[in-house]
UniProtKB/TrEMBL annotation:
It comes from the Eukaryota. This is Auxin-responsive protein SAUR15. Belongs to the ARG7 family. It comes from Cardamine amara subsp. amara. InterPro entries: SAUR_fam. Keywords: Developmental protein, Growth regulation. Pfam families: Auxin_inducible.
Amino acid sequence: MASLRSFLGAKQIKRRESASTPRGFMAVYVGENDQKKKRYVVPVSYLNQPLFQELLSKSEEEFGFDHPMGGLTIPCHESLFFTVTSQIR
């Protein structure tokens, strides 16, 4: 029984670790309107990139500084987000 508890405890820790954001990265939530937002982890260095800053401007226009997801929410279609981030790399 003790080994089962330790197994379940290890599984819970792994879930928490996978939800954390590594150092040098930030979590953003991407999706349009009422669409379910998906969480992506991007390098902090993207903040200095003009293309990414355009996405941030769109976010500021829609949400100001009050993001409903609790994190940075970018109101665009996932395909646009992928296009922008692939051009930055």
